[in-house]
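Intended use. Records like the one below are meant for learning the mapping from a protein sequence to its folded structure. Do not use them to infer anything beyond what is encoded.
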Amino acid sequence: MRTKTNRSLDAYQFTVRPLSKEEGGGYLVEYPDIPGCMSDGESIEEAIANGREALRDCVAVFQESGRKVPKPGIEAAQWRQRLPRTLYSKLTVQAENEGVSINSFVTAIIAEAIGVRQAHTGKRR
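Structure written out for the chain above:
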């Protein structure tokens, strides 16, 4: 069951980038709308899961201290995509296993793919 908090966390954009060997390796996830909110992990999946936890913690700190939680800076866009039922089923199961919505899960997959491509081409936007 998704809560209002989980839905509101879905609105925050994040970036994923590989860390150099000098930085310790693995991947870094950052939430640009929440100053200092970041995490890392050995794999992209672990980094995103850790980042999601960091986002929850950061929002909780803002709320507990009585400070206003920064709003997401970019409004989410939407498109519709038809998928084979088998693929949709696999995505749903994986999202449930990770404790996130299917929208969050697919967004993470897309962000991962963009981060990997940018790392390979050396281009960042």
